[in-house]
């Protein structure tokens, strides 16, 4: 069987790499179509092909024009041309074209219509609200694209139910649980770049977006600091929102020395170093279906605090401390015993690691995905 995986912007590179490698090990001829890799990417294709066919021009200009409005407009124009006029033979020539992310719905509609009937179309719906209502044009029309696919893959009942409420045919939806992931491991140089913790350290890592609730976390931390509790807060990742006011609040309140802000596109190794040096990992998301960040952290065996949104609501109570989504006072209350007790942190972290070990693996995911491919191709 020949399958082409497509994640044009490489939104979930570690996920793509893990699944492609596992399917290749099962004998599938797999190609991953994406953008050129950056220095912050850690993908080394094992058994599958990587074709950097998207965003070649905008990626080449990225060091000079940055990440602002001009870059976004250039990327949108380039992607639109690729979808409307580009060579789609790598997709149409496969038995299955599997779309991981659809980065610009108006352009994706054109591409999918060009492919419809020429190959089986499969899409992984990582989140039923694809861009969490903060993507503007990027996600406009996304729901209508779902009807063009022969099969939709989701990672849990939360997403399945959300799609069914949106009118998606239940027969097209396939649930395949998301296995834990591992980022590239931090080496000595990576660990040296992250300061050692002087106090218990809380970590929020990954892309920083409004729906992830970093503002709630800062509010909760400020209330605990003002009450005399001693701990550090580290923010590690690329902001896709203005967080300067949040950082200013911490500094103006006199707690700047307890804040570690490592902002920007970080390597997987750097993120892994942050997790290694943290004591508590935070996921105060307002809404989410499944969280790759959470699943990439379980093996570190650190105490986890999450909201009760999406997949977090289904976690066993012993795996993570859950708080009501959007509630900063409740988050502060949940953090307090963890900040104060190393024993509680260690016990919770050990249970998180054990839970991760029990969640299945990428070979299981590959076999389930291949079975879905066969169901839509008749192979």
UniProtKB/TrEMBL annotation:
Asked if Lipid metabolism is a keyword of the record, the answer is no
- Record-level GO BP terms: lipopolysaccharide biosynthetic process
How is this protein named in the record? Glycosyl transferase group 1
Any one GO molecular function term: glycosyltransferase activity
Organism of derivation: Sphingobium chlorophenolicum
> What domain of life?
Bacteria
Q: CDD domains of this UniProt entry?
A: GT4_PimA-like
Under the heading InterPro entries, the entry gives:
Glyco_trans_4-like_N
Domain Glycosyltransferase subfamily 4-like N-terminal: from-to ranges? 15-177
What the entry lists under PANTHER family is as follows:
GLYCOSYLTRANSFERASE WBBK-RELATED
Annotated keywords: Transferase
Under the heading Pfam families, the entry gives:
Glyco_trans_1_4, Glyco_trans_4_4
């Amino acid at each position: 069987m020949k399958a082409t995986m497509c994640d044009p912007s490489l939104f979930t590179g570690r996920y793509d790499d893990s699944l492609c490698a596992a399917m290749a090990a099962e004998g599938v001829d797999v190609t991953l179509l994406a953008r050129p890799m950056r220095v912050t990417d850690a993908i080394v294709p094992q058994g599958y092909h990587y074709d950097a066919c998207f965003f070649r021009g905008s990626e080449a200009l990225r060091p000079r024009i940055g990440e602002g409005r001009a870059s976004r407009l250039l990327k949108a124009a380039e992607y639109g041309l690729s979808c409307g006029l580009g060579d789609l033979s790598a997709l149409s020539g496969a038995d299955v074209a599997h779309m991981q992310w659809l980065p610009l719905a108006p352009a994706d509609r054109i591409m999918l219509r060009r492919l419809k009937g020429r190959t089986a179309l499969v899409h992984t719906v990582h989140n039923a609200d694809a861009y969490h209502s903060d993507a503007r044009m990027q996600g406009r029309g996304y729901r209508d694209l779902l009807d063009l696919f022969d099969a939709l893959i989701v990672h849990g009942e939360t997403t399945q139910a959300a799609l069914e409420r949106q009118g998606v045919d239940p027969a097209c939806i396939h649930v395949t649980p998301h296995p834990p992931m591992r980022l590239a491991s931090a080496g000595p140089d990576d660990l040296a770049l992250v300061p050692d913790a002087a106090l218990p350290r809380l970590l929020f890592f990954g892309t920083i977006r409004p729906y992830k609730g970093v503002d709630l976390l800062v509010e909760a931390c400020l209330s605990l600091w003002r009450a005399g509790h001693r701990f550090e807060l580290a923010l590690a990742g690329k902001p896709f929102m203005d967080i300067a006011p949040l950082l200013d609040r911490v500094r103006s309140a006199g707690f700047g020395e307890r804040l570690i802000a490592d902002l920007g596109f970080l390597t997987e190794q750097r993120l892994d170093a942050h997790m290694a040096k943290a004591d508590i990992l935070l996921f105060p998301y307002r809404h989410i279906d499944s969280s790759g960040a959470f699943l990439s952290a379980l093996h570190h065996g650190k105490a986890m605090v999450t909201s009760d949104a999406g997949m977090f609501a289904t976690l066993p109570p012993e795996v993570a401390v859950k708080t009501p989504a959007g509630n900063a006072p409740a988050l502060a209350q949940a953090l307090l015993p963890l900040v104060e007790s190393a024993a509680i942190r260690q016990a919770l972290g050990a249970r998180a690691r054990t839970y991760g070990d029990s969640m299945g693996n990428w070979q299981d995911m590959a076999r389930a995905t291949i079975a879905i491919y066969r169901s839509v191709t008749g192979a």
